[in-house]
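User: Can you predict the 3D structure for this chain?
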Amino acid sequence: MRIYKVQISDEALQEIESTANYIRVTVKNPILANRFRIKVFQTISSLSMNPNRFTILDAKYDSPKTDKLRKLIIDHYVAVYWVDEPSNSVHILAFYNQLQNY
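Assistant: Here is the predicted structure, written as structure tokens:
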């Protein structure tokens, strides 16, 4: 079985940290914020094994990469990513709340 290297874009990382910070500061629950971060990063890390097991993103965009984008659902959030087979890597492009129009 192939092992893929998982890379998180700056934008996705910023959104994950922003969400955790919101939980920590606004919701005033640092324990929940820490659990959120751990769950998100563990779930994203699981993409290193068989990243193609998750759903292909609906074609909402007119882009040549659209058919290669996949979505990983983590509770009420979606990580959008694509798999680069030649380099054995997974690229996390974005992280959204499911209520957002992604």
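Residues 5-97 form a domain with the YaeB-like fold fold (CATH 3.30.2310.20). The chain has one domain: 5-97.
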